[in-house]
Specification:
Blueprint: H1 10-18, H2 26-36, H3 51-62, E1 71-74, H4 78-92, E2 99-102, H5 108-115, E3 121-124, H6 126-130
Parallel strand pairs: 1-3, 2-3
Helix pairs in contact: 2-3, 3-4
């Protein structure tokens, strides 16, 4: 299934195309349509199969403004949090969706300032989210 056959908005499709993706991977083809319809999804796939886009594209489509937190993504490690944050930033940039990533080992003061701007998507590690 091609991304342009899914019910994705033009800004999100533009980001997907700019990243060089045309055809969805199996995990994406199975989960994106269901998630866009509002169904809960649970997926498991190997590294490099596009899991972030599988949940991230529908999530970005559901964001309706940049004035409040609407999604919280918890990642087990700093590296995965940063990777997910970067990917969602690239996928949501033409839609104007702001993301903030919070994790230990970095200044909490700077992260708090970013959180006070109420980004619609927050990605973080468990410990820093609890902080």
């Amino acid at each position: 299934m091609k991304f342009n056959e899914m019910n994705l908005s033009k800004p999100v499709l533009r980001a997907v195309e700019e990243m060089g993706f045309e055809e969805a991977t199996p995990i994406q083809a199975q989960t994106i349509p269901m998630a866009l319809e509002g169904q809960d999804i649970f997926g498991q796939a190997q590294t490099g199969t596009g899991k972030t886009a599988a949940f991230g594209l529908p999530l970005l489509e559901k964001i309706n403004d940049n004035t409040s937190v609407q999604a919280l993504i918890i990642e087990p490690t700093r590296e995965l949090a940063v990777q997910t944050g970067e990917e969602l930033y690239r996928l949501g940039k033409f839609k104007g969706v702001h993301t903030t990533t919070v994790y230990g080992g970095a200044s909490i003061g700077g992260q708090i300032k970013l959180l006070k701007k109420n980004p619609p998507v927050v990605i973080g590690t468990p410990g820093r989210i609890l902080d």
